[in-house]
Amino acid sequence: MAEQITDALVRRSSAGDRAQVFFWDTEVKGFGLRITNAGAKSFILDYRILGRQRRITIGNYPDWSVKAARREAGDLKKLVDKGEDPMGDRHALRSAPTVEDLWTRYQRDHLPRKAERSQVDERIMWEKLILPELGKYKVMEVTHDQVEALHRKITIERGTPVRANRVVEVLRKAYNLAMRWEWVEGNPASGIQKNREEKRERFLSPEELARLSSALAEHTEPVSANAIRLLMLTGARKSEVLGATWAMFDLDKGVWVKPSAHTKQRREHRVPLSAASLTLLKEIKKTAETPFVFPGKIDEDGTPHPITDIKRSWESVCIKASLADRVEKRNRDGKVMKDKAGNTVMTWKPNVRIHDLRHSFASLLVSGGASLPMIGAMLGHTQVQTTQRYAHLYDEPLREAANHVGDAIAKAAAQ
Fold it and tell me: Which of 268, 256, 231 minimizes the C-alpha distance to 358?
């Protein structure tokens, strides 16, 4: 039935014993009121687009007044006149992929191309930081402000500014892929102002290395202790050492050939081993029972696995070697922990990272007279710029060489 829809009409009308009834407005064509026998009342708009009849629900009464619903119907009809399909857009949005869907495809199509260590790290970022905040949102709905708020939350509440930067980088890459897949037109993670990062160049002194060696000798877990020793002696990356198999080593020739799948650059890296490294490896091999140099758990079916983490051992030996500082203890959410009396809980945290052993190895090569190209070859660098970070370590040797020239000139002048 057609008549002008008013608030009075809506209030007094019912469906009676019929399943539903419709009232059509005489002011805006296609605008109507639907009433079910359960008493539910809603405003609708019927329209035709590309030869198809469509019906879109505007909203329920009394959440929507007649005046507001009629105005919305008029706005929707203007879109239809321009060739747009409001109902189709609504269906498209409803079926549009969410950020969780983005993660599903990202980990299927992109993540396997990255190093194993990076895969583990990014999974943690997605599962612990990104998905809890954005997972339920449609990919196309996420805004620049939301990403910026996530960056700020990780920075301030968790107290991890560098981690916040990494999360934004991961999101930006994921959205770049989403644009390639035609899921979205823009990238809300672009243009986020990152936290300032200071490049850490921590080199252990000979005295610190001696203390660390003593702590390792007293450590109760020989597998992780030996892994740290090999890191010290080779300057290799942690993932390369922990995933090493005996098949990679030729102990007779004193060579370690790291396959491309185990290196950051995805290139085979052949590196000679020092006498100390060979001694350590030969000693470990005497009792080896698995293909892995540093064995971890063994499955019930007997399948062996390498050790996957040495964080606790590293913390233990650093504390023992006086390479740790007293800091505030934080929970998994990054918040400072308090005891029952409200006092801040303190704990020990290493002031040197496992990766700093690699820097220390390079500094010892410099002191031994190795050139930058030689250091790059030992560490497996493919870019000259990467090795260039150690150039400043040559200041003292170069100064000594310059002094030698100066002394020679002064001696000649005095004769």
Answer: 231
| Structural domain contains residue 389 | yes
H or E stretch covering 333: none
* Cα separation, 338 vs 22, whole angstroms: 63
Residues in contact with 415: Cβ distance below 8 Å, sequence separation at least 6, in sequence order:
none
* 323 shares its domain with 407: yes
Number of domains in the chain: 3
The span from the CA of 33 to the CA of 111, in Å, is 51
* 1 located within any domain: no
Residues 336 and 229 in one domain: yes
Tokens standing for 99?
A: 């950020």
d(CA 150, CA 170): 13
Supply the pLDDT for residue 94. Answer: 67
Residue 38's domain comprises 7-93
Q: What is the pTM of this model?
A: 0.60
408 contacts: CB under 8 Å, gap ≥ 6: none
Cβ-count burial of 361 within 10 angstroms (0-12 exposed, 13-18 middle, 19+ buried)?
Answer: buried
Tens-place pLDDT, residues 331-358: 766 678 888 888 988 889 999 999 999 9
Query: DSSP letters of 203-235?
Result: ---HHHHHHHHHHHHH-S-HHHHHHHHHHHHH-
> Are 54 and 87 a contacting pair, CB within 8 Å?
yes
Low-confidence ranges of the chain (pLDDT < 70): 1, 88-95, 332-334, 384-385, 392, 394-402, 404-406, 408-409, 412-413, 415
Dihedral of the alpha carbons of 405, 411, 414, 415, in degrees to the nearest 10: -120
Is omega for the bond preceding 291 within 30 degrees of 0, making it cis?
no
Q: Is residue 13 located within the same domain as residue 58?
A: yes
CA–CA separation, 378 and 362 (whole Å): 9
Give the span between the Cα atoms of 295 and 308, in whole angstroms.
9
| Other Cβ atoms within 10 Å of 199 Cβ, number | 5
